[in-house]
Design a protein that fits this description.
Length: 130
């Protein structure tokens, strides 16, 4: 049994295509320079429709996390770590931490992206200790 996967939409398709290639992308506003995830049709700071996809380093810092001991669905193996990772480029991403003992995760921990292919359409960006 496979975990539920996100739906690919016209707005998110470039993100998922880049993940399949092993590249983490964020949106950057051509008007004000604001960088953001999740993607949208306009900048969430200045509302300009001029947003472009740009690769990022895939490096970040754990800003918040939770260790899940009771899964919402049986397909999820517990315990697992969900986290908000602040990318070095400034925006944040809700993700899972992998290759990390739940007792070792800390706020401020440096992490790097690791891509896990889940289907022909979806490769998920997880993060691991750097």
């Amino acid at each position: 049994m496979m975990i539920p996967l996100p739906a690919v939409t016209p707005i998110t398709a470039p993100f998922w295509e880049a993940c399949k290639r092993g590249v983490l992308q964020i949106q950057r506003c051509l008007n004000c320079g604001h960088k953001t995830l999740p993607p949208d049709v306009a900048c969430n700071r200045c509302l300009s429709p001029g947003v472009v996809w740009t690769p990022c380093s895939g490096l970040g810092t754990v800003k918040s996390f939770s260790i899940v001991h009771r899964a919402s669905q049986p397909v999820f193996k517990v315990p697992y770590i969900v986290a908000i990772v602040q990318l070095d480029e400034g925006c944040a991403l809700f993700t899972n931490l992998i290759h990390c003992d739940p007792d070792q995760v800390k706020i401020g921990m440096k992490v790097k992206v690791e891509f896990v292919s889940m289907s022909a359409e979806i490769t998920l960006p997880y993060f691991a200790p750097d």
